[in-house]
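Saturday, quiet lab. Running sequence design on the structure tokens for the scaffold JK sent over.
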């Protein structure tokens, strides 16, 4: 069920407190990154925070610089009760579609936590395939500290993966675009065709499936 109200007083733990007050503790915040990319995996993170946590500066990962994200990633990992990651690769994304891949990655991240949460806060408006009680939050990375933390952890991890992929396929400049459909990336696809880590069913890639780089 999507919770539409804004955080009264902009309390970053408002939605966590609702669940805690219901006896549903611990709570895991979930987010994914890479859903809109043309290449690479979709990565999900799950973060469980203590009730007395303070994480100044943690907010939607898209509003932070790479250096800020890396510093906050270290802080989150230091203060969280548990952090986990999961990824679904490009071949499976093509097989089951990006929405199902994103939900599957988040469910896997929950299972990989070092402790068992009693409820989940999920960015977006889709529940995941899991038995635990769930609340979805549109723009959750701007409204929940747990979800914002997950967005940062997932983004830092995925960016590092794409920088590694750049070493194998430098012509696409994954180090800069991280697989997103930038003009530079789209021009590279026109020039070189797609590479093994491109999502072959995506518009902007499928047109070049017959032209593959090794």
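Result came back. Writing it out in full:
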């Amino acid at each position: 069920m999507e919770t539409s109200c804004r955080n009264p007083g902009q309390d970053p733990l408002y939605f966590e407190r609702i669940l805690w007050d219901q006896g549903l503790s611990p709570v895991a915040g979930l987010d994914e990154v890479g859903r809109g990319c043309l290449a690479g995996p979709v990565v999900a993170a799950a973060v469980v925070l203590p009730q007395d946590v303070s994480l100044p500066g943690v907010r939607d990962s898209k509003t932070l610089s790479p250096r800020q994200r890396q510093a906050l990633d270290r802080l989150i990992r230091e203060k969280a009760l548990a952090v986990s990651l999961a990824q679904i690769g490009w071949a499976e994304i093509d097989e089951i579609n990006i929405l199902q891949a994103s939900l599957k990655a988040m469910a896997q991240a929950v299972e990989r936590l070092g402790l068992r949460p009693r409820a989940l806060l999920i960015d977006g408006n889709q529940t995941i395939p899991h038995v635990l009680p769930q609340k979805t939050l549109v723009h959750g990375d701007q409204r929940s500290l747990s979800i914002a933390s997950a967005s940062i952890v997932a983004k830092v991890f995925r960016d590092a993966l794409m920088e590694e992929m750049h070493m194998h396929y430098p012509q696409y400049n994954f180090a800069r675009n991280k697989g997103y459909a930038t003009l530079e990336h789209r021009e590279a696809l026109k020039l070189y065709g797609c590479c093994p880590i491109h999502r072959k069913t995506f518009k902007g890639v499928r047109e070049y499936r017959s032209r593959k780089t090794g």
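Notes for JK: The first helix runs from residue 14 to 21. Helices lie at 14-21, 66-79, 90-96, 98-111, 145-168, 174-177, 183-192. Ask whether to fix the surface positions before the next round.
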